[in-house]
Amino acid sequence: MDFQTNPQLQLAADFVQYTNQHIFLTGKAGTGKTTFLKNLKKISPKRMIVVAPTGVAAINAGGVTIHSFFQISFGPQIPLDANQNRGIEPGNFGAAVKRFNKEKINIIRSIDLLVIDEISMVRADLLDAIDEVLRRYRDRNKPFGGVQLLMIGDLQQLAPIVKDEEWNLLKGYYETAFFFSSRCLQNAGFVPIELRHIFRQSDEVFIHLLNQIRENQLDAETLKQLNKRYLPDFQANEEEGYITLTTHNYQSQKINHEKLVVLAAKVHRFKANVIDDFPDYMYPTNFELELKVGAQVMFVKNDSSPEKLFYNGKIGKVLAIHKEVVEVKCPDDAQTIMVERAEWQNAKFSLNEETKEIEENVVGKFSQFPLKLAWAITIHKSQGLTFEKAIIDARQSFAHGQVYVALSRCKTLEGLVLRTPIEAYSVKNDSTVIGFSKNVEANQPNRQKLLQAQKIFQLQLLNELFDFNYLFRQLRYTLNQLAENRTVISGNLDARISSMLNPMQNNILSVAEKFENQLAYLTSNMEQLEGNAHFQDRVKKAGAYFQEQFNVIVNEPLSKIAFDTDNKAVRKTISGLMEKIMREAELKTTCMNEVITGFDLKHFLEVKAKAQIDSSATKVKRSKFSAEYMDVKYPAFYAEVQRWRKEKAKELNIPIARVLSQKELLEIANSLPVSRIELKAVKGMGGVKLKKFGQDILSMIIDFRQMEGLEVPLGTQKELEKVALSTTEISFKLFKEGKSVKEIANERNLATSTIETHLGKYVETGEIAIEQLVDPDRIAAISKIYYDNPKMTTTEVRSKLGEDYGYGEIRMVLFHLNSN
Q1: At what angle do helices 752-764 and 741-748 cross, to 10 degrees?
Q2: Quick one: which of 710, 720, 617, 607 has its CA closest to 674?
């Protein structure tokens, strides 16, 4: 089945690939919906995830179950307020959504297309729950988070399962249990595409009869014609391979058991081989398969070999059973089929870290003969299968669409036998579904609607790219949060953000608004955009202009931000806000770089999807905000004391503010006090703090002043040298005893950076070999910078080397160089 040879299939494929419209792909049984999905997966440039409501359906569609992927509970998903449309805040649904890991979040953020197979079985509340998850991790203001939906299925077949007690809970929120009653989908809208060419049946009389049942037009004449296939005395010839379709599982099991028992041959039992993660509810056939020579079986998988000897639903008889081969003869086949074990794979989606593509990774395997006893199966399990000959027992039909599903499994009317007459009451059709289906038929799109939708999609992508309002609002909100917490926050963050707002308003937002209007006017008479030279030229120029402005006004200030606070809650809030801002800035920058060379829809979607994925570069951590940009006179010393404070707090298991508060840290880093009297003058540094931490802090100050060539007042020089001398000697003594820097720091209750400074003095005198303290490769790297730039400060050296290098080892190398 080729898209290009079938206009309907091609139209459906184009709507999926070149628009962002949600699509409901439907069609009568046998119109090729499953085949369409398989072919789409091969050709579509969009990043897609395939899900289905049941395990078997998911395996058949090459996807995963809805509940497992979105981690949604099986109970009713109830909105909190029945009188309003569902909100977008996380947690509005009664059933909690589990927290996803980073990989799952990245996958969700990079999805272009979500395919839901067997949509007829998906309840409205489940579809709304999917919307909840997608909004949570993508765009909270767009239906389904901005992901395009492709819903595949036939509403005239199997309906969603909803128990009475569940419907009692849901009926106050939904008109019906069917997916089209989803609140989100009703607001979002969708394009209905109905496939009309039937591949399964070619008998026009039988096709007409099935359509009458499907469309609830089963009149007396049609029923009479159908019931001609009621053959009360019919005895199936074992050689012809008839299969009985039943309404209930116990009926088919009873028939299969009775038929197997009467066979005189020896029973052979084959256990499946299950590897890793393959849950039993997804088993495509029995875990323990019981077979006898003479048993009627059905293939439950398509033949993957080039010969294509069997297909899912093909009926045959077991002729012989060998150790690892079952010989099956099918009616009308000249040769027997030597059946070996087949393998089914349970796949989960993951993200390739290098390519950023969504990949299917096999997490479990199920190996068994692709057969099952098939004198009878349930109508439910026959969905999607095709039979040459079938006996249908539908007298206990209980669900909407069951009779239609059963009858439509057959290729011909002549291959169909009714066990009991079909009664009009047993053909259950939901009037709501019939009305919905008629509306679908009446609103089929054409090529003109496709072109319009494609153009709308392209303009929407560009307008979103050059819409900077979200970022502007985030910056203003962050500035307000900074103002509310100004007493506990230090740094330049508020100044940096303030400097962005007016230039953004004047040079970016106002210009972007004008550009959107210009683009709308420019393209109003264009049918296609990508091939239009004038359109492409305008987009390139816009990309270049906004990229330049954005780099100067936004990216440059963001690269030099710094803030700090002792308040964990405030730090978490501000860091979270800045993470959103920086991720949005990175996304904008990446996508603007792409359109500078022209707009190509396929490539743009690929670039955008990759840019939406979290990376370590956009994850805001405290180290991201360099002390270099703090509002402090000596940022290098500030960073050193900050690390010491953190180490000390960890060693003593106390909050960092009990070592040094943010205000105390800033004042010390600005004034560099050189005596206990000066240190005590820092507000908060008297008493216990001075006694516990004063010597450590003064040692760091002395060392920093000396290393940076700053003056050490003469009046305190001797006192400080005595302090430094006594403490360095102790460290040296412990080092000679074989203790490491960390062990000395722990024993002396000092920071490791302080011990490194102590020992550095002995490196300078040659009493300690530098190689005993610093890795040779790091010695070489630090030395090279000093050789090339002898006047560099330790701060500048560390900035050039990176944060992986510590001030202590840099200073020790400098001591070593001074000794030479």
Answers
A1: 120
A2: 720
pLDDT of the residue at 263? 92
Tokens read off for 460: 């929407």
Contact 153, 124 (CB under 8 A): no
Average pLDDT over residues 313-325: 90
- Count other Cβ atoms within 10 Å, centred on residue 802: 8
Half-sphere exposure of 301 (CA within 13 A, CB side): 21
Tens-digit pLDDT profile for residues 517-553? 999 999 988 888 888 999 999 999 999 999 999 999 9
Average pLDDT taken over every residue of the chain:
82
pLDDT at position 353 is 64
Q: Please say whether the beta carbons of 193 and 12 come within 8 A.
A: yes
> According to DSSP H, which parts of 138-238 are helical?
164-170, 183-188, 204-214, 220-226
Q: Which pTM was predicted?
A: 0.60
Site of tokens 């003109």: 448
Return the number of other C-beta atoms located less than 10 Å from residue 710's C-beta: 14
Rounded Cα distance, 778 and 797, in Å: 12
Tell me the pLDDT band of 613, cut-offs 50, 70 and 90.
low
What are the pLDDT digits (tens) for 615-646? 444 444 433 445 556 667 787 788 788 888 88
- DSSP H helical ranges for 292-361: none
469 CB-near residues (< 8 Å, 6+ apart): 509
Distance, in Å, from the CA atom of 55 to the CA atom of 35, rounded to the nearest integer, reads: 19
Residue in 311, 285, 287, 290 with CA at minimum distance from that of residue 299: 311
Is the separation of the CB atoms in 735 and 744 below 8 Å? Answer: yes
pLDDT (average), residues 7-33: 84
Task: Give the gyration radius of the chain's Cα atoms.
Answer: 36
Asked if 25 contacts 118 with a C-beta cutoff of 8 angstroms, the reply is no
- In the numeric block, which tokens belong to residue 766? 């040659």
Residue type, 509: L
Alpha carbon distance 511, 383 (integer Å) = 56
Residue 1 has pLDDT above 60, yes or no: no
Angle CA 646–650–656, to nearest 5:
50
CA dist 79 and 83 (Å) reads 10
